[in-house]
Amino acid sequence: MSDSNNEVEQKSREKISVEVCYALPEQQTLLKVTVDAETTLKDVIELSGILEQHKEIDLAENKVGVFSKPAKLDDTLHDGDRIEIYRPLLIDPKEVRKQRALKAQQEAQRADNKKIDKAGNNGAENVNSANKNKKES
């Protein structure tokens, strides 16, 4: 047997510990799994049992990552890796930023209008006071 075959055989017998996590707003699931070193990310997710706990997970739809970095289902893992299964976005982040900017713009406009109204009323009050003082003199 050659050295390269021996290394492959030894790696396939080597075990690693990884975590699989999935988070909902009200519940987080973190499962620890021990698998063969050459096990793919998809196989680890399936072996973990998380798909049975969370029926809404669809590996064809949900994106996955390892320590917040995007990963592919056929990637292999390292000891201590944390697999993360991401929920689909409910709203496009660009749309959220656009809505936030519009709201800030509207609030700034309202604040400017209040300043103008205040300045306008103060000016009118000052003119009325001046006219009243002239009549009394």
Q: Helices, strands, pairings?
A:
Blueprint (H helix, E strand, L loop, with lengths): L2 H11 L1 E9 L4 E9 L4 H8 L1 H4 L10 E3 L2 E3 L10 E4 L7 H44 L1
Parallel strand pairs: 1-5
Antiparallel strand pairs: 1-2, 3-4, 3-5
β-sheet strand percentage: 15-25%
Low-confidence stretches: none
Q: What is the rounded Rg?
A: 32 Å
Major sheet description: 5 strands, mixed
Name the helicity range.
Answer: 40-55%
What is the total number of structural domains?
2
- The CATH superfamily of the largest domain appears as RnfH-like
CATH architecture of the largest domain: Roll
Q: Specify the overall morphology.
A: rod-shaped
Label the structural class.
alpha+beta
Instruction: Please state how the strands of the largest beta sheet are arranged side by side.
Output: 2-1-5-3-4
| The CATH top-level class label of the largest domain | Alpha Beta
Please tally the β strands and state the result: 5
Q: Count the helices. How many? A: 4
**N to C succession of SSEs:** HEEHHEEEH
Distance between the termini: 118 Å
Structure write-up:
The protein is α+β, with helices and mostly antiparallel strands. It has two domains: 10-85, RnfH-like (Ubiquitin-like (UB roll), Roll), CATH 3.10.20.280; 89-137. Helices cover 49% and strands 20% of the residues. The protein has helices at 3-13, 41-48, 50-53, 93-136, and strands at 15-23, 28-36, 64-66, 69-71, 82-85. A five-stranded mixed sheet has the order 2-1-5-3-4. Strand 3 (64-66) and strand 4 form a beta hairpin. The model has no long low-confidence stretch (mean pLDDT 82).
